[in-house]
Amino acid sequence: IETPDLAKAVKELTNLLKQPPQKIEKTEGEFASQLKAYEERISELEKSLKREKQRRLELTAENEALKSEISNLKARILTSEERLKYEARIKALESEVSSLKEQLEEAAELEATLERMRELVESWKGLILETGNILGLELIPDDIQALMQERDELRRKLEVYEREEALKNELVRQTLTDPAVKSWIRDAENILQQFCMRGQAGEAILKAALRMDPEVSFLPEEIETGYTQATNLNYLNALVSRGLLWETRKNGRKAFRNRLYQWVAENVRKIRPSAPDEAVSRIAEHLKGLVLR
C-alpha cells in the first residue's frame, strides 16, 4: 500500500527520468566549462608563484653579492660617498627581500589553496566521467580515456624510476666518498704504478692485458707488447697472482682473461657491501685510465 507522499515522489522521479538528454548534456557542458576555467586559473597562479620565487632567489643572491663586495671594499679605503651608496643599496635590497618573504608566505598559502582546488578539480573530473558512464553519454571518447590511463601509468612508472635513480645515485656518492674506499683506491693506484715501474716490459704487458675484453681469453703471444712469449707469460702470471687476470684454457693451453672489474668489485664490496655496480665501474675505469693514459 503506497502512502500519498511516496506516490508523489515516485511520480516526480518518473518525470525527471523522462526529461530530454539535451538538458543532462547541458549540465555536463557547464561542469566542463567551469572545470576548464579552474584549471586555467590554477595554471596562471602557479606561473605567478614560480616567478615570485625566482625573483626572490635573484634578489637574495644579489644582496649577498653586494654584502660581500662591501666587506671587501671596507678592507680597503672607501670614500664616504661610496660607502653610503652601497649601504643604501643593501638596505633597499633587504627591504625588498623582506617584502618578498611576506609575498612568499602568502604564495605558500596560495599554493595550499591551489592544491585543494586541484584535488577538487580531480574529484569533479571523476564525478563527470562517472555520471556520463551511468547516463550512457560519451563525454570523453574511449580512445582518449585509454590515452589518459596510459599517461597516468607512465607517470607512476616515471616516479618509481626517479626514486630508484635518486637512491642509486646516493649509493654511488656514498661509495665514492667513503674514506675507506678512497684509501683502497690509492692502494690500488700504487699497485698498478709499481707494476709499471718494473721496467718497460711490465708497463707494456699490463696495458695490453687491461685493454683486452673481459670476455675474451688470450694466449701470451696474442697480446702485442714487443716482447717475447716467455716475457709476456712471466708478467701475466704476476698479474694473475695480484688478482688482475683470470687463468683460463684456450686450445688446450694456459690462457688469461682480464678481471680488473671483478678485482675492484671484490675489494670495494669488502668495505661497502651495498656498493652499486655504477660505483664499481667508475673506479675500474679510473684505474684503467691511469694505466692506459
Write up this protein.
The chain has 293 residues and is mainly α. It has 2 domains: 4-139; 176-292, Arc Repressor Mutant, subunit A (Orthogonal Bundle). Helix content is 80%, strand content 4%. It has a two-stranded antiparallel sheet with strand order 1-2. Strand 1 and strand 2 (253-258) form a beta hairpin. Helix 8 (260-271) packs across helix 9 (277-292). The chain is flat, with a radius of gyration of 36 Å.
Keywords for this entry:
Arc Repressor Mutant, subunit A, single chain, 293 residues, mainly alpha, two-stranded antiparallel sheet
Q: What does the secondary structure layout of this molecule look like, with pairings?
A:
Layout: H1 4-17, H2 21-75, H3 80-135, H4 142-177, H5 179-196, H6 200-211, H7 229-242, E1 245-250, E2 253-258, H8 260-271, H9 277-292
Antiparallel strand pairs: 1-2
Summarize the structure.
It contains 9 helices and 2 strands, in the order αααααααββαα. With 293 residues, the protein is mainly alpha-helical.
Name the structural class.
mainly alpha
Q: Which blocks of ≥5 consecutive residues have pLDDT under 50?
A: none
If strands are numbered along the chain, what order do they take across the biggest sheet? Answer: 1-2
The coarse silhouette is: flat
Total individual domains: 2
Instruction: List the secondary-structure elements in sequence, H or E.
Output: HHHHHHHEEHH
